Amino acid sequence: MKQAKVYYKDMYAGLLTETEDGYTFAYDAEYINNPQAKAVSLTLPLTKEVCKSNVLFPFFDGLIPEGWLLDIARHNWKINLRDRMSLLTACCKDCIGAVSVEPVIERE
Q1: pLDDT for position 73
Q2: Among 107, 66, 108, CA closest to 84
């Protein structure tokens, strides 16, 4: 299982999770109750319900760089192009726009 914290304008917005069954995205309860909260994407409405998908949500997949920048990331971190969650967490901490993604580091 891989997880990533999703931030909207530096505010923790929710948790993206990859499991064997697919992907889930859940907004943080504190974030939902914040009057300034906005949906991270039109395709991921601000709701208490957990969003589920068999593939990485297109919005998050769209944050992953393409072309030469993707090649640099792939070569430097030795990430398989099909491992979209690893590419997302490696490349999207400081991406263009209001949303950023950080990996959840598992402690042993």
Answers
A1: 81
A2: 66
- The number of domains in the chain is 1
Q: What percent of the chain has pLDDT over 90?
A: 71
Please tell me the predicted confidence (pLDDT) of residue 81.
Answer: 85
pTM (2 d.p.): 0.91
108 lies in some domain: no
DSSP 11-61: EEEEEEEEETTEEEEEE-HHHHHSTT---SBTTB-S-SSPEEESS--HHHH
Contacts of 85 (CB under 8 A, 6+ apart): 2, 4, 16, 18, 23, 56
Domain span at 36: 2-103
